[in-house]
Amino acid sequence: xxxxxxxxxxxxxxxxxxxxxxxxxxxxxxxxxxxxxxxxxxxxxxxxxxxxxxxxxxxxxxxxxxxxxxxxxxxxxxxxxxxxxxxxxxxxxxxxxxxxxxxxxxxxxxxxxxxxxxxxxxxxxxxxxxxxxxxxxxxxxxxxxxxxxxxxxxxxxxxxxxxxxxxxxxxxxxxxxxxxxxxxxxxxxxxxxxxxxxxxxxxxxxxxxxxxxxxxxxxxxxxxxxxxxxxxxxxxxxxxxxxxxxxxxxxxxxxxxxxxx
Length: 261
Known about the structure:
- The chain is α/β, with parallel strands linked by helices.
- The chain has one domain (6-260): Rossmann fold (3-Layer(aba) Sandwich), CATH 3.40.50.
- The protein has helices spanning 6-35, 39-44, 55-81, 99-106, 118-131, 167-180, 197-210, 223-232; strands at residues 89-93, 110-115, 136-140, 153-158, 181-192, 235-243, 253-260.
- Strands 3-2-1-4-5-7-6 form a seven-stranded mixed beta sheet, sandwiched between helices.
């Protein structure tokens, strides 16, 4: 290597690191787009009441019921308190086939769904047009780069998405959610709990074996990690709810209801 100063060398290191991270991010997005462009996956995330007996479907259905109950309470509280003519806005990050979006629109929310897979947003847009659904739009987008003005949405959900993000991208995603969420607005997210042995070993196997060298991630994290990150982003945890376990700390999936201060 030709001689250079320490400061120049550090700059070179930073550039190389940035280039490396950019390549990894592109690789992750490419594989994840491929997986969630699968027609079966898209249709699974379109129907709110799938009849499959798989554990994945049971989790999705349970999450759906929890989210819808929370959103209905938010609507009743906010619209009833402020003005019945007001229209709340909602964003679904990682909408896929639009399961939540269509349900939100039926409740009167002006809803936007984004997904990294164009095939998914095209499917949802087509369904919306066929059904004549009002107040509903779909577009390609990422959790780490929400292209909306600050303080745009009253409600944001990000379900079955965040476990695909690296620690760095997860932090960015929370910052982006904070940016576009209105003050007093509510976001609903899910955690794949690292303290649950079954889901932790399953996700570790898929990341290290099934999707090895593809960039597609399936990561678990502890409730403590999530809590710290949420608070550091300027968001406040209102409530958390476990799925399939009476002991929240050991639940495979934990839902968090968070609020922008």
